[in-house]
Protein 1
Amino acid sequence: MFAGASAAILVTMALALFRAIRGPTIYDRILAVNAFGTLTVVLIAVHGFLAGRPEFLDIALVYALINFIATIAVTKYVKFSHLGHPSGEDERGDV
Amino acid sequence: MLQALSLGAVLYGLWLLLSGHFEPLLLGLGLASTIVVVLIARRMDLIDREGHPIHLSWRFLLYIPWLLWEIVKANIDIARVIVRPRMAIDPSVLRLKGTQKSELGHVIYANSITLTPGTVTIGLEEGVLSVHALTREAAEGLIRGDMDRRVTAVEGAADGRGEHGA
Amino acid sequence: MALLADIASWACLIAGSLFALIGAVGIVRLPDVFARMHGAGIVDTLGMGLILAGLMIHEGFTMVTVKLVLIVVFIFFASPTTTHALARAALNGGLKPLVDGKNAPSAEPGERTGGPSKT
């Protein structure tokens, strides 16, 4: 059963990857990569059960955190071309 | 101060859950790191009513099951739209006025909208939300204002004080 | 009882996989970024949630389940934040949401009595 779920997740990841490669805008790619990351978290968790080693869940948790930070960082970099403070005076907010 | 204490309690609970060991040494290390983190958060001025909203706890807990059920219903609707060979989508952008009093209420409302598939908040300024709706049904469900009323009820009872609180 | 739990866990896994697949199909098929966010929303909420719920039911009430709950709660907080940041970045980058097959500016500010205001 877990193998079936893994297979479904892999197909889903392939579809997300297709959109990430296809584009057409940078935002499509970020969106697809974010979904890909969420699916990776799920895949790691399912694989932990498949292998009978629930310690994989710690990795999944950390991956979820990293995926969130990475997406926000890339989004911010694309928006401001900068990871520090916004460059324009009229820009409000950090994200 | 209350916020700092509850932040410490949450962090220590998280430490216990993730470590799973209960020897005195590890419990002490966890306590020490919790205290250091809370002190740093205080120094950085991160502890306020907004970032740590303990004042709307139980009403928020009642709101979660309703939101989850809404998410399930919206998911089924949108999934049905996507799998049709000819997608019957009708995207629209609508402006909604949230009736919440505080910024925290607006954020809860906007995040609830985004969490339900079919509607995504693409802008939030001064309590006016721009929402992208994928289908006409999703837009109409939002305009009926059910979620808006419930979020207002969540924040309204406990939080009658000003914009940002103390 | 164990059989019942197994069936529930399998049902959750199958339904979750199905929703994740549909969400990804949405990411591929829908016409523009803002519409694709709805597809990503399906993957992030019900797809992820049901698969992890299936794992929780399989495991019963242990430390593993608590960690799964933590993952679900975290993604439920992170997903709207990411989507919102991305939408703001896309708007800032000059993208306009597709409305009725053409790029339209956002509707004029109206109250929520106005119906789905379209331009």
Protein 2
Amino acid sequence: MTGEPDIRITTTVNDVTVEAQVEGRTLLSDFLRHDVGLTGTHVACEHGVCGACTVLVDDQPVRSCLMLAAQVDGCRVDTVESLGTQDDLSPLQSAMWAEHGLQCGFCTPGILMTVEGGRRAGLDVRQVVEDALPGHLCRCTGYQNIRNAIESYFAQGVQA
Amino acid sequence: MKGYCMKPGPFRYIAAQSVEEALDVLASAEEDVAILAGGQSLVSLMNLRLARPDIVLDINRVPGLATVQADDSGARIGALARAAVVERDASVGRYVPALITAIGHIGHPQVRNRTTIGGNVAHADPSSELPGLLACMEGTVTLASASRGAREVGWDEFFISVFTTCKEPDELVTSVNFPMAPGWRYAYDEVATRHGDYPLAGVSMGLRVDGGVVQEARVSVVGVADRPVRLSSVEAAAAGQDASAALARDMAGIARTECPASDDAHVSAEHRRWLAGTLVSRLMASMVDAA
């Protein structure tokens, strides 16, 4: 039926098993924010252009506004909350902090997940900076400090 | 009901577990069915409510549709193969490198992780890269239905107009085929406002050169009309000519006359035709150098 949360899904979000009933039309981004309560995933354009909502599904960076929650049944989803905490930043978050890789911070969660995904997939720093970072719109920084942060993170040689 | 707003309109969600099940849904549905593959265009259109299907048929869990095969006869790409997977496939890189180049212009890596080759072609966006390469390579699309089995149609029959193909409502795209014949080489290049945007003009070129002489040429353009366009005057002018810088200039000049184009919010028709000519010239230069 339409308009009823009649689809049962089981997914692993940040290493926690989540069981839920969703409507077919529930977007993965809205599911994460409103059903799971993880508001670190930001939504802006909601049609795949800006990259703010990027999360990892089975380790791959994807636009969560362009997937249905029903599609992650049986999948592993990692959001920005899987990285560090405010008191204990992840190496990538520390690099972003140190290099002043953000100003308003709205686009930052998506960028962090793209970079983490690139690292897990074994991409080199050039591929992440030249190919993947352009998939994110940042209207504050002019990108240079984000590039510096990514380069600093990769130079550490730490597997996050 | 959840207490938050939904971007897409309501629909019935069906996750097919096999090709047969998907075809049965398509054959029996009396309502409007949208086939969900990568979703990078469909979900975007649903979020904007430009698309409001009654049923969304998710084929992502259908086994056997994500095959990638390439050899000296070309590339046969299963409809569900992700752009990111094809892009990294060593045999595609060896035998049909133009396909890798064209895929590299589709959105960004985060999008290509989901984009499927079948979905890209079935969507038939007139600015999309792969329909243009398919037109240049005289490619085909394989369609399947429950009642009539499989059929393979050429690009010229498949692409009808903007977002419109010859695929019947009960049919599913099962593979996209980029054929190679001995002696042919292909290349793709485009100009876009920003990398990852749809191109203002995108040109595919195929050449069969023997002894420094162009035996045959194929040139297609996307972004300029309601479907991919072959530039037959440019192709005819190249045949039998020395593969030279002078020929590249001639072909560019003819392309600027022959290529259709219209004004839009980004650029004028004249600018678009100019870009098509420039791309023809650039591709000729790179392909002759690489010969």
Protein 3
Amino acid sequence: MARAVTTNRKITMTVIAWSIGFLIFFPILWTVLTSFKSEAEAIASPPSFVFFDWTIENYGIVMERSNYFRFFMNSVVISVGSTLIGLIIAVPAAWSMAFVPGKGTKNILMWMLSTKMLPPVGVLIPIYLIFKNVGLLDTRTGLVIVLTLINLPIIIWMLYTYFKEIPVDILEAARMDGASLRNEIIYVLTPMAVPGIASTMLLNIILAWNEAFWTLNLTAANAAPLTAFIASYSSPEGLFYAKLSAASTMAIAPILIMGWFSQKQLVRGLTFGAVK
Amino acid sequence: MGRITLDKVAKRFGEVEVIPPLDLTIEEGEFVVFVGPSGCGKSTLLRLIAGLEDVSGGQIRIDGKDATETPPAKRGLAMVFQSYALYPHMSVRKNIAFPLKMAGMPEDEQKRRIDNAAKVLNLTDYIDRRPGQLSGGQRQRVAIGRAIVREPAAFLFDEPLSNLDAALRVGMRLEITELHARLKTTMIYVTHDQVEAMTMADKIVVLRAGHIEQVGSPLELYRTPRNLFVAGFIGSPKMNLIEGSEASKHGCKTIGIRPEHISVSATEGMWKGRVGVSEHLGSDTFFYVHDTGLADDMTVRVPGEVELKAGDDVYLTPDMEKMHRFDDSGLRLS
Amino acid sequence: MSTQHSRSAARLMISPSVILLLAWMIIPLSLTLYFSFLRYNLLMPGANPFVGFENYTYFLTDPAFFSALTNTLVLVGGVLIITIVGGVLLALLLDQPMWGQGIVRILVIAPFFVMPTVSALVWKNMFMNPVNGLFAYMAKFLGLQPFDFLAHAPLASIILIVSWQWLPFATLILLTAMQSLDSERMEAAEMDGAGPLARFFYMVVPHLSRAITVVILIQTIFLLSVFAEILVTTNGGPGTSSTNLTYLVYAQSLLNFDVGGGSAGGVVAIILANIVAIFLMRMIGKNLDA
């Protein structure tokens, strides 16, 4: 509402909102702070907030001792790989459903969505056994396949809602202007669709990066991504707070930053366009 | 170049027949307006000509060649869309250049044509802006620019002025008419606004429910509407249609008299009524006359200003020469 | 734009997705269904005889199943209540004029992007640990006895952790919905004499109801499958006090190697999820004008 707000009210709201925001964010902040402490300071009583000897030794130790880089690369390969493959499969499908809708389009979309509703635990055993038999267990390829498939419906849906927003008129105009289907896609559709595709990609990488059912159950030493790496801190290493914190910070930092950029798309992607 | 012939062209969406088989010839250089109420199939007809929809039957010939199966890109037609359909990610220059680029035209020829179009359409100052930074009228001109640079066999306009405000609409109407006078290219123009049809067309095609009701020049339609629908649709304010005993006197089911063909007097005349609302436009005055015993409300148009108040008695006299007569099935009696 | 040519191209472009998803759905599902009728244990190789509904009888009469079902419902219900109530309040708050709104929003949203294993371990060790956890310090500071959250209230602790992860999601969606509320409509209501409370209940709440339903349904789908949080904190214990259905099936099949029993559990989980899915699909379908 375009209307003057009393300064007092604004101050009150600001203070309340900032306090609550800080409270919700605190566990993350605390993790980041602890990652710069020595182990002794991490469990010191009373805990110190910022006045401690800042050190980055934990990061060094975590990287050295646990072959951190390999887990990190597994996470990158799995999340980026499954997203790219998913996009390659999904873009044509979403394109055709958005621009050449037929009688069955709505049903196909709903059916695709329904595959996302399948609880992973319902298909865990067959997938596990199949993977074991064909040698995909604990491989990056295997995880890329699974994550591509479980996120494909979300990718198709997000792209579909973005493509739907491109006016059909413009594509028809291109056709009247003499563009072949190929040129229409290259010069008109793609530039207009790129922002939507980019957001879809971003959100999907985040979802794949944080996926923690399949990555925990289908990997061991070789293909384990960061989710599984962190899970290995479950005990007793988890009692080394500073190192746990350093490992955690490294695992969440890249995705946290990407996530902040994709706030708006998050809503659209995870509600399948039901809330925009 | 630019003679378009429709031969028994029909369109069905599933079971629904939107356009029953229809014949129409658009002569080279003609400005043809398809007009009709919304849902009459005028846009669909245009899209069939454009090739954006498949015909369900019949043949479309452009300059004598069968184009029924030709994809839109190959028909040599240019279209201006209602939404303008400009490419939002391209500058004005690139928008206009797009069809030329698609045709693989040499750069210098492209530039020559674009600069020329920009000058004609007053776009030179905006040539490097994006469509999002332009006003409605400017966008409209870019869309037209994009169409004219190709020097197409015919232009197709799909309600191009309906998103502009009233003042701009009149201006653009004039510009398009002037453009046609200069280019002498065939233009097919779709609108629901009979004023646009009357002011711009060489030939008007009145459509209803996919049927052609009448084809003719604006004045032909005005003077001799073929049936009640055309009579009611063409002309503003609408023709007064009177049924009953008054019509029987003239030996027909319905008589029609246009508001401007009725004279008004406070003292004597053929029909007596009472003044309801009056609209004073300055140049004209419209009266809505009640209680004439003829039709619910008679509309009368009088040039200049006339002092009559609501509730005053008034006498109306039609110009018998300009009365239209229609039979039981709504067709014109000569 | 629907010409014959483009329609056949469209069918071609959609087929890879359809085929892949069809395979992904049908193959494992039919296998799960098939295994659920077999006596099939990976530790006992040999014939896997058909046993009819034995696995189901065994799984459904196992006291662990009943406890897992209850835990699943409590977990889903608890998290939903916390996130919806918290989400509405937070969305209302964030919709107010203030300084640094964007930053507060970023702070509130952050937990959603933390991977489940990290958030579970951070909460477990650095906050809930009865000796060195931050909560223990606070208790000691206040002169109270530290409380061993995960030992004495394991399910409640997991609900807390999962709620922290999902509160941002609910907040973000409800905030988006709230911001789409037409301000002219609110002003019209104000002109019609509606006070702030009346406006909240007659304008805001009905406007949000759709978004709230979407949040409930989508979160339920994900919450039925909570797994990593349990695995790294309590391993479903003590006993089965924090075992949900997903974890129980996992334990049955990959820890006890009982493929048949696990599959029967999987089928039960699918049926449960489908009940929710039907409602969700209706909601989304209504909004789809394809």
Protein 4
Amino acid sequence: MKKKLINQKYLAGLLTLTVFFASCSEDALDGVNRDRNNTADVSAKFILTDLMTSTAFSVAGGDISLYSSVYVEHETGVHNQTYNAEIRSGEPTLATTNNNSWNAIYQNIKNAKIAIAKTSAGGPEEGNDVTNGIAKVLLAYNLGVLTDFFGDAPFSETGIMNEDGTPKYYQPKIEKQSELYPQIQQFLDEAIASLAGTDAGVTGGIGTQDLIYGGAKAQWIKAAYGLKARYLMHTLKVSSNANADLATILSYIDKSFTSVSDEMKFDRYDGVQAVNPLFGYTNARDGLGASKSLLTKFTEYEDPRGEPAFGVWGSQAVVHISLADALEEAAPNGAPEQVQYFYPLCFANYAYGAPTMLLSYHELMFLKAEALARLQRTEEAEEALQGAVVAAFANFERSLEYGIEYVAQVAPEVLDLSEEVALDYFENSVKARFTENPLKEIMVQKYLGFYGASGESTEAFNDIRRMKALGEDFITLANPKNVSQFPLRFPYGNSDVTTNQHIFDAYGNGSYVYTENVWWAGGTR
Amino acid sequence: MIVITTKRGAQGKTQVSFNSNISFDRISRYPELQNTYAQGTGGNFNPTASTSWGPKIADLPKSASHGGETENAFTRADGQKPGMYYVPQRAYAGLDPWVKPQAYDNIKEFFNTGVTFNNSLSVSQGTERGNYSFSLGSTKQNGIIPNTGMERYNARLSTELKLSERFKAAFSGNFSNSNINKAPSANDGIVATVYPAPPSYDLKGIPSYYENNPYRPNGYRGGAFVNPYWGMENNTFNEKNNRFFGSGSIAYNTDLNSEKLLLDVKYQLGTDIYTTNFRDVWGFGSPTRGSANNGYLEEYSFTNNMVNSLLTANLSWDINDDFNLTTLVGNEIVNTATTYRYAYGTDFAFGGWNHMDNTANKDASSEYKFSRTFGSFVNLNLSYRNFLFLTATGRQDIVSTMPRNNRRFFYPSLGLSFVFTELDGIRGNDVLTFGKLRSSYAQVGQAGNYLPSYYSIPTYEGGFYSGQPIIYPIGGIKAYIPSETIYNPNLVPQNTNSYEIGVDLGFLKGLVDVSYTFSRQNVTDQIFAVPLAGSTGAAEFMTNNGKVHTNAHEATVNVNILRKNDLDWSIGANFTKIDNYVDELAEGVNSIFLGGFVTPQARAGIGDKFPVIYGSSYARNQKGQIVVDEDGLPTAGAPGVIGRVAPDFILGLNTSLRYKRLTLSAVSEWKQGGQMYSGTTGLFGLYGNSMESAEARDKNEIMFPNAVKEDGTPNDIKITGYGNIQDYYTILNNIDESSIVEASFFKMREIALRYQAIKKERFNLGVNFFARNLLLWTNSPVIDPESSQGNTNMAGSFERFTLPQTSSYGFGINLQF
């Protein structure tokens, strides 16, 4: 009995030892620690899908547009963060305010660089030229927003990895905006060249992974030219030959969108799996009220967009009110009460399905009108402006429809922003002011056309700063804080302020946002 | 190494023991808040404002928009209502909207008295052939928040059987089952709507939903901040756990045919298996949850399966009369498999049935993780007579969770202790009856979790949004991006070297015991997820990043003042001072992130006793004085260290007094020094709930204290005017430093009274009464400084509408036969 048991014990021990040596080799443990839950690699097109979503949701249409809308007075910030932005306390200078956007842009830049490397010569997906071109357009786009809003910023050291997958640069150095801007044009030029090719690489074409154009390369080429026009226009103040640049801008526009169906937009918000970012903000936070200065403009111009757009919270949901009543109750710029569900608001703020415009057809037409007007080609400018206004009306109408469907307790009796109504407005209101000062009216209409749920306050903020730099005081802003505290830029993101010495030094206490213009607006940083 | 120790039955007759107690929990410290000013902003009443910056409650009938004595939409409809004002939420609920204003104590009305029952029964017996012990326990708790609580049942069996003279077999098994209903936390938390509720709003009295529509919440503010009464009825956060752990072992011992040797060989196979099921439901009608407020639910579970194989051989050798050596060698294999499953369903079709099958859109994911550790160890204990003891150990681990070729690590320890009162000449001393000197050195290796770089589905959460604003697939299209966490492929195990010296002294035959220990821990290659600059394109880097050290002093004194047959009295004190410092950080790393928000954060940096709180500070001049602007308002300076968390010391005091069968005991704790971030304290100012904000309004004056003006002279700028005073609090709350509070406290941890009513050889009955966390003294202005959130790294340094601490009172009986 005793002996038998001992034998069994030895057997057990032997078994244990066998298992031990077989299962603690490095190979066996690699197997144990294998990551079963994630893929080690994907082809570039899957990276680009989110690059598009993130560029739309987190960069162009998200917090950047939200804070811009407060600074350009498309909206009045009435609660918490937007209120603080409105009264210029905290938020405009705090590194945390735009940290999420800052991080999203850099994640996009890194992802675009990875996708480009994969599809470039020598990469595993060499030959996928269209995918390569799309990645370059989106890289240019994110670089554009980055430097427009944050000025001098790290770029070339972003997303550069050592052989072992660790970052090569933990504290990326800051680069001058004057050096970053030419790269935007360069990436777009390279994109146009790549887009002329095909997706012949092993992983196949981008197809439906392209959430913007469904893989239609002709439209990407148009978008790239449109962006070239936008970013060249930004630098008018620092141009050595403005007229030549304006002619170049027109030549780019000629190769860009020919109709609304070409415009570069993210139109994938279904209200369930994906929602418009302004809707997401409003639904969760309700920090925006109707801006008094904006409603004053709508009223003055008898703009048909003002009448159906606004409502106040009633017992169940939002009850439509007239523009006159909305103006009466509108949130005063710079000095609202900090309170939710109180001030009138625009139905568009609840436009869950409104697309985010990355470059709208109306923006392109406004750019065209501006370039023509600056070149004194007034008649052609008028035609472009008219097209822009019609397209902007249609986009705003669609946003209002979404918002009314979602949140109206009492909907406006009439919602008609059709081409006919737009043209009527053009004839009876716009035209007279255009005749008096074509450029001013173009910029005012562009400013009004950017109002809504499509994230275009982002570009409106660029326009306002651009015009200030050129001494063109076309848009009247009412916030009394602007005397000394108009934000000239956004503060650097907290993740860098707290870990990157270069950014920590450049950030200081954040008050530079009120004093330092970006390079293209006549500043040095 | 997991050693499962279980209580085994003692030899003899069956022993039965039964314990039962009940306790009642209440919030330990209610914040003292103003009850003069009504909901609103800028001095005007507003029924949807989150703030209490409205008119005086008594003046509500004069409100221009809602007063019963003014001309407004409501009096136009209903006529003048002297002494009353219109509350729209009452109208929505189907009540008469016109009421006389009054102040409500919303916090006290919301929280319940929690009740906890504990019952346990155990049976044990020992026989010649072995022993067994069996016990059952149950706990039932109703929380201080309505509809929250816990039920827990557990059963335990352990037996040991002598198979023969040489062989023993043992088994032990524990099973437990728990069911917990929780309250949501952080920004979704109940406290975030209860604490700042305006005193003018009748949170309990006004129904939490619209008349004839139980799925339409009705509250004092809109958006995601749902009425807490509605939330507790409609939203549920449930956690259910089933767990079994236990082991079987077989042991063999032999004297190897020598009187001086004893060998024990034991093999044990153990397991720990549990499944935890979570179910979080935001019910139909939940504002901002699901599209069109239709709600959503998440169901997720973790199944963990751990198997532990342990083989040990223990040899005890009495070398001669003076020396004894025990040697333990062993091998341990731990294999763990974890499965996580997640299911998400959004948009309930109708109310009343918050079930997955009632949702319109669903998503699911799963995760599988495995890990394996091989440990081989040897322990040597050598003793010389009964006063010199030497211990040496060594262990090598091989772990699967580290990168290839960095998986193997060895760590030794060495200890020496010397009972010098056993030396001839000192032994028998009447004053110093016991004296021991201890010293040790130990190294401990700790593995991290390494993964090769990977791609994952991007998620969009947080920021301003409720829930997830984007969920892939979008129209059936998936996307993948590189992980935001980068793992260092050269990750090596973290290494802790501890040195300890100590002395234990006993005086006057146990009348006074004193002990003191100093220890120093040097941690090298600390493994941390280092936050990366966003401009790198990634969020964090899992790596070894530097050296930290800890100095700890611990001293205890126990005095047995009286030791008589009918009367005992003892008092004791223990003093602890633990200081942590960072000595060195990896290149490119400025500080270690320990937890917190985007701002402020708990951090460890070079030169500061950590943790410190890092965030936006007040702007200061060269002399370090806070500077106010021309309006008398502080402005934000550069972000930096704004609070120091580490306490100077912690002193515990305890005493026990027995008279015959009655024992009175008390335990208290004094924590001196240290600060914390109290978001609640700052937000009470922002929201206009704090007493200080009411006093400022009463006096129509406030001044930022202890600051200088831009010219360096002391600040004497008084801020007056209702709106300016509100702005002052808004601006203050935009600077993190304004929410840093002192966190010293003295707490009476427990006072207990025990009475042994019956004390016989075969029958014992005792009753006891106790009160816990009864008294609190603190320099924290509003909250109990122990209300904190976050992980242990943060050392309790953060708080923001955290669930409050409780005091408990209760009594129990214990019975043995």
